[in-house]
Amino acid sequence: MDRTRAPATRTRYRAPLVGFAPADDPRFDELCALVPDHLHPRELLPDARVVCAFYLPFSSHTVTANACEERVSEHWARAYVETNALLSELCITLVAELERIGIPAAWAPPTHNFDPVRLVSAWSHKSIGVICGLGQLGHHHMLITESGCAGRLGSIVLGTGTKLPPRRNADGSFCAFDRGCRVCIQRCPVGALTESGLDRSRCYARCLENDARFPQWTADVCGRCATGPCALQPMHHSKSSGEIPVV
User: Rg of the Cα trace of the chain?
Assistant: First the structure.
């Protein structure tokens, strides 16, 4: 599957993952209660029926390239930029095709939709991915899916006329932090990720430093914490807690 590549990009991907959830899943209400500024699916689309989340996992080569450098690799930065553009194009196309057959739909950008002070998203694709059964949140605040955490997420909300497809279940504990794994902490180059959690401001400051290295792109990204043992596959263990992540 590493041969899969979007026609207009140099980035290579593994097989995509797709998950669904009903728009009235109570976990959306819980998420909005935890993060008051977070949008409910019905705020994106008043007659929302189904939420669809999708994940594009990077190739193993992209992961290896970023793991070998202290600063973000050009390969990873390009993947970040190209995949954000690809996800936006995908959402625009999906919404147009759905509306053409009479199904209203809406979407939010794959990135840069967060509060610049609190660094919390108004529409967290990671949290949406958890609710749609794509995976679980790791200690590094990345979504760990069946295909790991090295990749990008998008999502759309579908309205009247949509039937809920079979739902995915992310069973087991995908993160090995509670079993002693500390690779993501060790790979954070600025100490933003510690035993106690993530310092969002320090993490984002590093991302902005990396962005300055690539003036041709908007590449405010690092990804070093996403190159460990859960990069390409989850670290399976016991059943998950089902808690709602805030990312």
Answer: 17
Q: How many CA atoms lie within 13 A of 235 on its CB side?
A: 18
Cα-Cα-Cα-Cα dihedral of 222, 201, 124, 212, to 10°?
A: -40
Please state at what angle helix 60-67 crosses helix 74-100, rounded to 10 degrees.
Answer: 140
Task: Give the residues across from 184 on adjacent strands.
Answer: none
Model confidence over 95-154: pLDDT tens digits? 999 999 999 999 999 877 777 778 889 999 999 999 999 999 999 999 999 999 999 999
Find out whether 31 and 244 touch, Cβ atoms under 8 Å: yes
For the chain, the domains span 4-227
Distance, CA of 122 to CA of 126 (rounded, Å)? 12
Report how far residue 191's alpha carbon sits from residue 92's, in angstroms, rounded to the nearest whole number: 38
Q: What is the DSSP letter of 166?
A: P
Main-chain dihedrals φ then ψ at residue 54, nearest 5 degrees: -140, 150
